[in-house]
């Protein structure tokens, strides 16, 4: 199985398994899809995806940890931190053939960072 991540092949079985688990999770898929075009806050993602805010925060941490979601932040006038999340991938394609699983990750070219 080969995974293409930002132009680099990833061979680690644990990383491959993590991507497949992420794809199997409907909340993670919703967050990735919702943030492909525009960055959004966790509250926006919670509302748009219909998931509890605590689940939204856990999923964005998971996605960011696997480099599938980017985070940008600022501090508002009240001194509170405000984070926005944006998908770092445009698509993830999987194919199982000849006993091997292939996963291709296409980077999101709309990234502002």
Walk me through the structure.
By secondary structure, the chain is of the alpha+beta class. The chain has helices spanning 13-24, 26-34, 42-49, 53-65, and strands at 3-5, 8-10, 69-75, 81-87, 89-97, 100-107. The chain has one domain: Orthogonal Bundle (Arc Repressor Mutant, subunit A). α2 (26-34) packs across α4 and α3 crosses α4 (53-65). The mean pLDDT is 85.
Question: Which helices and strands, and how do they pair?
Answer:
Layout: E1 3-5, E2 8-10, H1 13-24, H2 26-34, H3 42-49, H4 53-65, E3 69-75, E4 81-87, E5 89-97, E6 100-107
Parallel strand pairs: 1-6
Antiparallel strand pairs: 1-2, 3-4, 5-6
Helix pairs in contact: 2-4, 3-4
Compact description:
This protein is an alpha+beta fold.
């Amino acid at each position: 199985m080969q995974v293409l991540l930002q132009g680099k092949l990833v061979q680690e079985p644990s990383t491959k398994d993590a991507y497949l688990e992420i794809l199997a999770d409907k909340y993670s898929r919703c967050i990735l899809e919702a943030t492909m075009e525009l960055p959004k806050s966790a509250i926006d993602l919670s509302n748009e995806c219909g998931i509890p805010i605590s689940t939204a925060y856990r999923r964005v941490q998971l996605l960011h940890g696997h480099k599938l979601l980017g985070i940008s932040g600022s501090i508002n006038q009240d001194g509170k931190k405000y984070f926005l999340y944006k998908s770092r991938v445009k698509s993830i394609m999987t194919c199982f053939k000849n006993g091997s699983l292939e996963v291709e990750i296409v980077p999101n070219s709309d990234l502002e960072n």
